[in-house]
Design brief:
mainly alpha
């Protein structure tokens, strides 16, 4: 039970930290790099979709946080099975790896979507890589602090 609580709390906190980074970068660059909003836009623009949701709908946040929790579970299982240490370098490398996975996932989502949001994908993907480094570093920090 404690293992699950650590996974969930770390996933939520790391995802919120990553998302705060994305919102801050969005503010300073005047570009929409906000993952929960883009998730909502993808859902809203689906044809024959009965839900009418806006950019700030809770669904985008729930999906984004659930993905973060899944990545933390993956990381914790990796620590347990592969016996690697949780250092700042581990956090950065983990962030880069899941950042690449995130980019692939978003590219698949955008490519197969009938009406994807109009964004500069290169800028979004570069940001996504950095945001996941923030995520991975936060995960390692929280695990090392015993959260």
């Amino acid at each position: 039970m404690l293992f699950l609580l650590v996974i969930i709390s770390t996933g939520i906190l790391a995802t919120l930290t990553m998302t705060a980074f994305s919102y801050g970068l969005s503010f300073f660059t005047h570009t929409n790099l906000r993952e929960p909003q883009l998730i909502n836009l993808l859902i809203e623009k689906l044809p024959f979709q009965p839900l009418k949701i806006g950019r700030e709908h809770v669904l985008g946040w729930v999906i984004h946080i659930l993905i973060g929790i899944f990545f933390v579970l993956f990381f914790k299982l990796g620590i347990h099975l592969l016996h690697f240490s949780t250092t700042p370098i581990t956090g950065v490398l983990f962030g880069l790896c899941i950042g690449v996975l995130g980019i692939v996932g978003w590219e698949i989502g955008f490519s197969f979507h009938p009406n994807p949001p109009k964004i500069n994908r290169l800028v979004y993907y570069l940001h996504l890589l950095l945001a996941h480094v923030v995520f991975g570093s936060t995960v390692v920090f929280l695990i090392n602090k015993g959260v």
